[in-house]
Amino acid sequence: MTHAEAFRAAALQEIETRIARFRTLTYDESLALPEADFSDIVITAREVQVTVFRQIAPPSLPDQILLTVQIARHSMGGVVAFRLERGLVYSRNAPPRDATEQELRDSGG
Fold first, then answer.
1. Burial, 27: exposed, middle or buried (Cβ in 10 Å; 0-12, 13-18, 19+)?
2. Burial of 18 (C-beta count, 10 Å sphere; 0-12/13-18/19+)
3. Strand 94-98 and strand 36-43: pairing?
4. Where are the domains of the chain?
5. Which residues have CB under 8 Å from 46's CB, separation 6+?
């Protein structure tokens, strides 16, 4: 496995771990989350930024909440060199479900 492959696998595992914690929340509990939460962590000796975004009723998901977990690594010039994200969609009368790639794109992520 190359370093890039190992980095991507570790980043995906970090996202999945965080998503698993949010998967237990209800619609109402997800409303209480901050709109954005940022932290820096190290993955395979590289510093990355972890951001959790909460969007209430984005245009493509009326009456729902989209929670996105994103990991990004920036190059020396500040340009994003790597970005990976996954998300959950919360509805009032259903358990959270995984957001589709299209829903994540439509949200502006």
1. middle
2. middle
3. unpaired
4. 3-106
5. 7, 73
- SS3 of 18-56: HHHHHCCCCHHHHHCCCCEEEEEEEECCEEEEEEEEEEE
Q: In what order do the strands lie in the sheet with 36-43?
A: 36-43, 46-56, 65-74, 80-91, 94-98
- CA 25 vs CA 21, 28, 38, 50, 100: distances in Å: 8, 8, 19, 20, 19
pTM above 0.90, yes or no: no
CATH class of 3-106: alpha beta
Supply 43's token pair: 């993955």
Q: Supply the Cα-derived Rg of the chain in whole angstroms.
A: 14
* 32-86 tens-digit pLDDT: 999 999 999 998 888 899 999 999 999 889 999 999 999 998 777 666 678 889 9
45's tokens: 């000796």
